[in-house]
């Protein structure tokens, strides 16, 4: 497996590259070749690594370690059959070499046989005292298997070997999050910070756990410590801004988001959140300015177009709102929420045909929320297509069979359609299920709520419920 890369090439690497330039042949120890190959693998220079392996094996044809590096490259390039043949030969020569089991595990992993990969890595563990890399590989295999508990245990061992291994630390926290064990993550990170009090990564991750648990003051303190540990840590400023938003401290949130713009290249997400803060402060011109900066920075960020849509919708400028929701739909035409918003805008414009199309599309895209169904039914009602409206409510009832809102609305729609019999039946069902929500019927259909037969049904239902 590739060793940690060094910042500066060693003397053997410089000598090897000089040899390549002059076409001279220099002799290197097998260990020198291993160092050279590891260097190139760590830097992603596969062609140079392969050249070093070829020359190395020419000079040291019996070196098992160089052959294993050859296998590693073959596995990386998906030449799995050739790699397996070489491993078979090597296992005859050195059946206790843990690297053979590791490379076999990599092959099984590439074939999506993660259980077999784990079994081989467990064997490798028994053959060496240097288990850091093996635990890291085991953690990844367990992630592939969705076994987050075992994955977490192995990544924890990596962190215990090297507390500066932030990749493993991130993976530990990821496992806690997937298991929704936020308290466990908080305990783990606090223990880690007892030993590493100036680790900005751990403070940042701790803050995110507190944020998830809505412990905003604790989250704020954690992000402040991350910034104290590294005042150039952009992620900490951004997350601190989110906490300040939750605490309604919008000016302070804007200040933190603007800091992220100074630290690194501006991001559309920062502009978006700044715009939202200005909107909360009532500064609509600055909100609009930052929403436009959002889509200028990233024209494919559909949320940016959606915020501009919302901005104009709230102002009552429905034509502009429609223009921008169409921009969002052009980027993500499968987004059910965007189609729902599109439907609302068309209703505001009294364009019921397109509103009907948009709501239908939202439901076809998977938005089965009760509100979406009811809004779609209302569109048909407003367009005087009461049979279609009742059909929509019947479909809706398949998803929400106990919904009293549907029953009261159906009763009103039947009566609007002149069908007193079904209207009476639906109203009786609604009253039987929830008399307290009669106001839904009275508010939406006041023309029927004081009819004698309706009052009689209500009176009878009250007596029955006593």
Q: Describe it for me?
A:
The protein has 466 residues and is mainly alpha-helical. Among the domains are: 1-61, no CATH class; 402-466. The protein contains 28 helices and no strands. The protein has helices at residues 11-22, 30-42, 46-59, 64-76, 80-93, 98-110, 114-125, 132-144, 148-161, 166-178, 182-195, 200-212, 216-229, 234-246, 250-263, 268-280, 284-297, 302-315, 318-331, 336-348, 352-364, 370-382, 386-399, 404-416, 420-433, 438-444, 446-449, 452-465. Helix 6 runs antiparallel to helix 7 (114-125) and helix 11 runs antiparallel to helix 12 (200-212). The longest helix is centred in the N-terminal third of the chain and has 14 residues, at 46-59. Residues 1-7 have low confidence and may be disordered.
């Amino acid at each position: 497996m590739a060793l940690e890369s060094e910042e500066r090439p060693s003397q053997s690497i410089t000598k090897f590259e000089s040899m390549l330039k002059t076409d001279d042949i220099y002799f290197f120890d097998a260990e020198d070749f291993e160092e050279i190959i590891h260097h190139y693998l760590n830097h992603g220079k596969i062609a140079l690594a392969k050249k070093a392996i070829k020359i190395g094996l020419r000079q040291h044809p019996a070196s098992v370690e160089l052959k294993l590096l050859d296998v590693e490259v073959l596995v990386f390039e998906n030449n799995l059959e050739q790699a397996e043949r070489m491993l078979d030969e090597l296992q005859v020569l050195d059946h206790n070499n843990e690297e053979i089991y590791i490379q076999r595990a990599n092959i099984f992993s590439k074939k999506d046989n993660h259980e077999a990969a784990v079994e081989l890595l467990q064997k490798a563990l028994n053959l060496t005292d240097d288990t850091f890399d093996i635990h890291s590989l085991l953690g990844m295999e367990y992630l592939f298997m969705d076994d987050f508990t075992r994955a977490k245990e192995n990544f924890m061992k990596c962190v215990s070997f090297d507390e500066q291994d932030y990749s493993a630390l991130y993976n530990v926290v990821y496992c806690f999050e997937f298991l929704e064990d936020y308290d466990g993550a908080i305990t783990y990170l606090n223990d880690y910070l007892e030993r590493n009090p100036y680790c900005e990564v751990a403070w940042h991750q701790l803050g995110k756990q507190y944020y998830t648990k809505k412990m905003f003051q604790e989250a704020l303190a954690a992000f402040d410590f991350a910034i104290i540990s590294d005042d150039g840590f952009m992620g900490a400023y951004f997350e601190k801004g989110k906490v300040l938003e939750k605490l309604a401290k919008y000016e302070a949130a804007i200040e933190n988001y603007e800091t992220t713009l100074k630290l690194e290249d501006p991001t559309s997400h920062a502009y978006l959140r700044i715009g939202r803060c200005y909107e909360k402060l009532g500064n609509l011109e600055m909100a609009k300015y930052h929403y436009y900066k959002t889509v200028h920075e990233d024209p494919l960020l559909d949320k940016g177009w959606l915020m501009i849509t919302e901005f104009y919708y709230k102002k009552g400028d429905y034509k502009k709102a429609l223009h921008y929701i169409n921009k969002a739909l052009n980027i993500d035409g499968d987004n059910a929420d965007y189609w729902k918003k599109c439907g609302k805008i068309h209703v505001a414009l009294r364009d019921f045909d397109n509103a009907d199309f948009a709501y239908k599309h939202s439901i076809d895209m998977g938005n089965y929320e009760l509100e979406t169904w009811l809004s779609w039914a209302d569109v048909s009602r407003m367009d005087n297509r009461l049979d279609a409206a009742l059909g929509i409510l019947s479909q809706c009832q398949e998803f929400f069979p106990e919904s009293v809102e549907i029953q009261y609305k159906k009763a009103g729609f039947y009566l609007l359609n002149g069908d007193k019999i079904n209207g009476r039946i639906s109203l009786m069902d609604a009253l039987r299920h929830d008399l307290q929500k009669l106001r839904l019927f009275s508010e939406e259909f006041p023309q029927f709520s004081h009819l004698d037969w309706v009052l009689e049904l209500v009176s009878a239902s009250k007596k029955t419920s006593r």
